[in-house]
Design brief:
5-stranded parallel β-sheet; 5 helices; 5 strands; globular
């Protein structure tokens, strides 16, 4: 029996996320697997104004759902399968670790590096540094200098 492969991509506002998503969709297509999208949003602490916090949470969730629909058509076009979609509230790295702990079906975490001169972003820095021993799945990092065509040619 073959295990279904699921490639986790973290949704954010970075341009490199598109490279991670492209790689994951191509990889999923190649092995008849799935792309899994995880969006996170921070908790806003309005302890005195719980109603304001609830409104902010609803808006953040609605924005994430809208972005997921956008990305779903891109992934569907490449992999021929709809992605699995999840949204979590809280610190991004903690959400990812909690998600992976709760969802053992994930085969690989796909991130893409930034071309920023300031160094790796918080996810790559965290998962190759402080949190590397907490990560229970392989981590794939797509280099920032790969073009779309070069990513496509990997498969």
């Amino acid at each position: 029996m073959n295990k279904e492969l699921n490639f986790l991509v973290i949704m954010d506002e970075t341009k490199e996320m598109h490279n991670a998503m492209r790689y994951a969709a191509l990889r999923a297509s190649r092995v008849d697997g799935f792309v899994v999208l995880l969006a996170t949003f921070d908790s806003l602490d309005f302890s005195h104004w719980k109603a304001v916090e609830n409104i902010a949470d609803k808006e953040s969730r609605k924005t994430a759902e809208s972005k997921m629909l956008e990305f779903e058509s891109f992934i569907l076009k490449i992999s021929k399968k709809r992605p699995k979609k999840y949204i979590m509230k809280g610190d991004r790295i903690m959400c990812i670790l909690d998600f992976l702990e709760s969802n053992k079906f994930i085969s690989n975490l796909i991130l893409a590096s930034s071309d920023e001169k300031s160094g790796p972003g918080p996810l790559i820095q965290g998962f190759t540094g402080k949190y590397r021993s907490n990560l229970k799945v392989p981590l794939t990092i797509i280099p920032s200098n790969l073009t779309k065509e070069e990513i496509d040619n990997l498969f």
